[in-house]
Amino acid sequence: MERTAGGDQNSGLTAEQKKQLKKERRKAKVSGKATQSTTQVQTSFPGTDASSSNVLQKSKAELRAERRAKQEADRAAKAAMKAEQTSGGSKLKGPQVPANIQADDPKVQKKAAKKLEKQQVPQRAEGQKKVALFSHLHQYERSLSITSNMGFGNTGIHPAIIQLGLQYAEGLITGSNARCAALISAVCRVIKDYVTPQHKELSRDLEMKLKPAISYLNQCRPLSVSMGSAIKFMKLQISVCRKMSDSEAKSRLVDSLREFVRVNIVLAGKAISDSACTKISDGDVVMIYGNSSLITRVLCDAHKVGRNFRVVVVDSRPKLAGRGALRRLRQAGIQCSYVLVSAASYIMPEVTKVVLGAHGLLSNGYVMGSVGTSMVAMAAKACGVPVIVCCEAYKFCERVQADSFVNNEIGDPRDLLVKTNSHKSNPSLLDEEDWKQMDSLKVLHLTYDVTPPDYVAMVVTELGKIPCTSVPVVLRVRSTDT
């Protein structure tokens, strides 16, 4: 009825009026739908109009900044969650400690034993009756042979390396320079006898062959600082020979290793001697400790150029190495006196200079030397006597150490108590059987000590006269040169 009525109402309109009426109805219909959709959006999501207008008004840079801030917040939240989990249950990762100063940790020693077994290197038995304060260090005893279970040809270790290790263990080769030169000589023999297997590269296979040899030497006696520098140089030279033929690479390696000895030991010793001689004047009373080949050379060269001085040789048990230095100095015609280390402070007022050798110079400026060196330097400091240390630059190391307890080498305790074959002339305090039965008696035989840089006036190297605190600078220069 309504439609009919509408049709009757429109029947009197003209064609143009009808078209205009249809347009108006169409517009009204479209506007009604838009209003209805907007109302539904507003009822479902309040405030949609305001947020959409804000998004349209924001620039692309602002949107990127918001996304970046959200990502940073998510990362911070993840890091905080990870830190909570780490502090709650899992172990914190600290600095890595070498296995050789964790002898009291069964897990670390078990892992080290597996590594040696994989390399087919015999493990040296641990010494008994250790001092509790030094239980974290290995105690090497000559009575416990490392080669007793080694069959002939069962391992891949060269006979020259086995011989060298036994000489280290028995104390036939001592001194930093002598041990380093002997290592280089043995490695040159290994390289000459080496034959590259088929389908293998010399640089990689030779380095794998040398790893068991180095582990074996470390079992015989801990590696010295000078030997560590030689091993680093050796690995660097092996990596350089990758694109060479086998014969050319072997020849280059042997020549470079011999050049290492010539430059860092022979020529460096000559340069140090020439520089240190200028510090010795007529009438000086020079005190030395132990038997350092470099110090003996300095004093002999100073005597050859006409300097008139006297030397006080300080020695200590059990090795009494100062007798060797005393013998060489007397053969050179130098006037000498010989005292034990217990009398160093008594005779120090007569001394004008103290010249000491070094096993190595640490990165924090401490001087590592034979046990007793720190005592002599301390007595000289108390009396106002300058202490001069002569040391080659290749003995500088990046290790930091402020005492003799954390890292050291423990020698055979029998050297301090009983009579051995190498020291038949020395009186023995106890028989070996009596010492074994005395469980309450424990002996400590330290090999090295460290001297603070405050006790040392200067260090004479082939690079010049420098303070102890310049060790990091020398290490940086040497690393850039190599």
How would you describe the overall organization of this protein?
- The protein has about 475 residues and is of the alpha/beta class.
- The protein is about 50% helix and about 10% strand.
- The strands form two sheets. A seven-stranded mixed β-sheet has the order 3-2-1-4-7-9-10, sandwiched between helices.
- Strand 1, helix 11 and strand 2 form a beta-alpha-beta unit.
- Helix 7 packs antiparallel against helix 10 and helix 8 runs antiparallel to helix 9.
- The longest helix has about 30 residues.
- The radius of gyration is 40 Å and the shape is elongated.
- The termini are far apart.
- The N terminus is likely disordered.
Give me the secondary-structure topology.
Elements: H1 2-10, H2 15-44, H3 48-57, H4 60-88, H5 106-118, H6 159-170, H7 176-193, H8 202-220, H9 225-240, H10 246-277, E1 285-289, H11 293-304, E2 310-315, H12 322-331, E3 335-340, H13 344-347, E4 353-356, E5 360-361, E6 367-370, H14 373-383, E7 387-390, H15 414-417, H16 432-437, E8 448-451, E9 458-461, E10 464-466, H17 471-481
Parallel strand pairs: 1-2, 1-4, 2-3, 4-7, 7-9
Antiparallel strand pairs: 5-6, 6-8, 9-10
